[in-house]
Amino acid sequence: MSLGIKLDLPERMAGGISYLIAALLLLGVAGPLLAILGKAMLSQTGEWIWLANFIEITAVASFWPAVINSLWVSIATTLIVLPLAYLFAAALTRSRMPGKGLFRYLALIPLLAPSLLPGISLVYLFGNQGLLKSWLPLGVSIYGPLGIVLGEAFYTFPHALMILLTALAIADARLYEAATSLGAGRIRQWFTVTLPAVRYGLISAGFVVFTLVMTDFGVPKLIGGQFNVLAVEAYKQVIGQQNFPKGAVIGLLLLLPAVLSFMVDYLVQQKALLTSRAQPLVPKPAALRDALALLWCCGVATWLLVMLGVAVAASLITLWPYNMNLTLAHFDFEQMDGGGWLAYFNSLKLAFWTAVCGVITVFTGAYLNEKLRSAPMAQAVLRVLAMLPMAVPGLVLGLGYVFFFNAPSNPLHGLYGTMSILVLCTVTHFYTTAHLTASTALKQMDSEFEAVAASLKVPFWKTLRRVTVPVCLPAILDIARYYFVSAMTTVSAVIFLYTPDTVLSSLAVLNMDDAGDTAAAAAMATLIVMTSALVCLLFVLASALLGKRSQAWRG
């Protein structure tokens, strides 16, 4: 009897861990979403009023202009970013131009910066004292829809690019050979072969950009001026007017485009299949095409570098544009309002613990889902909840945390206002992308490893430590890097959750700008970018060093 219990122990442990991770996601995602739904149906005094808040807020004169403004800038940004990202991705995948690796890294620069950085750069370029203010037509201001669209284009460009790179990288050379042999020109081939193959990627990229702009808080808050959008309206209701029910209503409305885009993306991805007989497309040299591709990538990369460079320059210039002497005074954050160096070190602490806890939680959950079947119910719940954060905007999730964890009846009420809740919120907010990365890496491994280990009575944790983790080490490092950088740059998800003791550097940028210390805000944003870039470099070096041992089998 004791022997039977011993043999069942690893399976019971795996099941228990599955239930634990599922419970963590229930607390981190489902609980806040239910809380925000409940709060939207309560009055400010706590009485149950069903849909009265929805009716009341839609009757407010400023509501529908905010909706129209949000839709306008989201559609405009999507229409600008998609062609930019598509042509850049096509240049990297369908040409023989030089420097592809360099341009790929340059295109990802916006991922290292908080969404507030492009707003700061645009102020210094086209603001009231901007270097290039004369470039704007008479009567046109950067403070409004123009600034929001330009800033969001910088912020969302790499997100669209990564999707389109994946879509264009998968191509069947046989289709192009057949089209050429039938006399189809390049334009005809694009409409009959390329577009059908990448249309799902274009749809996904379009919805991702639209949703990111619709729910982003940083850019419109910094440079939107009097041009009100829904994300800023939610912030005003909660922080400015302390009207939590109406803030919850707007949060739920912001959830709709994200859920819609997630559903459309899921449906179209089910149809995007590539046959096993496909031949990879290898572009042939073409002087004119390669020259145009290089020119396009240089133009886009220059735009990205200028946006970053202006923020860096602003942090080093004494008083733009009157005193252009270099100084480091703006990095003396203790003399500025907003959080000081405490904010920066809090961000490092948040990024470190988010990376550690995120990697352990995500990889363990993905491993139990992909390799073991010890707790089918918990694993089914885990599969659903793992995909849910992708459909929840950061602003909505953060607002849900306020209602859920700040409720006195919640036994976890003590977490509110601590670094722990910031870590939990950040891990769950970015869970889906990390989970998909881990699952992809695990699916490449044959399930026979676990079957053989089980037959030899080897516990799953030994197989995990000796085989799975070393093989999947590159993916694990990618997840850690993704979590670290995301935690350094996050704004929307934590804007409602910080206290004076847990203020973060990305939020300090906003607070400094609100206080009029725009140069100090630029300095803090620059520090975030440099820290993120340095950490990415360290991860690349760690991957190379550890890979020599753990990935030697690939050779």
Structure characteristics:
555 residues; mainly alpha; MetI-like fold; 1% strand
What does this structure look like?
Mean pLDDT is 83; it is low at 1-7 and 272-276. Helices cover 71% and strands 1% of the residues. It contains 22 helices and two strands. With 555 residues, it is an all-alpha fold. A hairpin with a 3-residue loop joins strand 1 and strand 2. The protein has helices at residues 2-39, 52-58, 63-93, 100-107, 116-126, 145-169, 173-181, 186-215, 218-223, 230-240, 244-269, 287-316, 340-371, 376-387, 394-405, 419-429, 431-443, 448-455, 460-471, 473-489, 505-514, 518-550; strands at residues 317-319, 323-326. The chain is globular and about 75 Å long. It has two domains: 1-28 and 337-555, MetI-like (MetI-like fold, Orthogonal Bundle), CATH 1.10.3720.10; 64-273 and 282-327, MetI-like fold (Orthogonal Bundle). It has a two-stranded antiparallel ribbon. It starts with a helix and ends in a 5-residue tail after the last helix. Helix 1 (2-39) crosses helix 15 and helix 5 (116-126) crosses helix 12 (287-316).
